[in-house]
Specification:
The structure holds two protein chains of two kinds.
Chain A: H1 2-20, H2 28-41, H3 52-75, H4 90-102, H5 109-123, H6 126-135, E1 137-138, H7 140-166, E2 169-170, H8 172-183, H9 186-194, E3 202-203
Chain B: E1 2-3
Classes of the chains: A mainly alpha, B mainly beta.
Chain lengths: ~210, ~10
């Protein structure tokens, strides 16, 4: 369900861009961070086979995130306003690299990159949420995208509990980062459920 | 419980 929610979020994002011929309201910085997240995490495509499903999803996430960047940077460039997308990504990249160096399962390059990608994913939404706060409102379709994207990691949580008891396996890095990631959406979810799903416009209190 | 990275997840 988490993976399908993630997949749905990307389909909704592409649908929003195509139908409105615009990337208004979408943070280029957040989208660029996702490209970095997927490239650093899915490097193991080259040596670690899990399943056709797993490989297909990895390829889709890499390809779609690069494609969204292309759409924002070239095809719909005039519709993107950098002056409201001002979050400093250096404040995310530095700490995530340090977290990756401290918390990893083996001190080697690919494992550090994997851990870095987990931490970076947890906070990659911040430029987008920062932008949303600056503008104070959003199109309904953009909020559906964010809701599906936020629900995705939250839906992993029951799976982690299941695996803790069922398979006696726990991934503390993914769990802690996943809880942080989900936590960052709580404010958004509150407004989404109380306004957008009640048929009102997404507007933040002044 | 074994602490390990769940590399079969996305």
């Amino acid at each position: 369900a988490g993976d399908i929610s993630h997949l749905a979020s990307i389909v909704i994002l592409l649908h929003k861009i195509y139908t409105s011929h615009s990337c208004r309201g979408i943070s280029f910085k957040t989208q660029a961070l996702y490209v970095l997240v997927f490239l650093t995490r899915y490097l193991d495509l080259f040596w670690h086979w899990v399943s056709l499903y797993n490989t297909a999803m990895k390829v889709f996430f890499i390809a779609s995130s690069v494609y969204v960047l292309y759409l924002m940077k070239y095809k719909y460039r005039p519709t993107h306003d950098p002056s409201i997308d001002t979050f400093k990504v250096e404040y995310l990249l530095g700490p995530c690299l340090i977290l990756g160096l401290i918390f990893n399962y083996e001190f080697k390059f690919t494992e550090i990159l994997w851990s870095f990608s987990i931490w970076l994913e947890a906070v990659a939404i911040l430029p987008q949420l920062f932008m949303l706060q600056r503008t104070g409102e959003a199109e309904a379709i953009t909020t559906h995208y964010l809701a599906a994207l936020g629900a995705y990691r939250a839906l992993y949580i029951p799976n982690w509990i299941w695996r803790y008891f069922g398979d006696n396996v726990v991934d503390p890095i993914a769990v802690v980062a996943g809880l942080v990631q989900t936590g960052l959406y709580l404010d958004f979810f509150y407004v989404y459920f109380t306004k957008v799903l009640q048929g009102q416009k997404f507007e933040l209190p002044a | 419980n074994e602490h390990t990275s769940t590399k079969d997840e996305l």
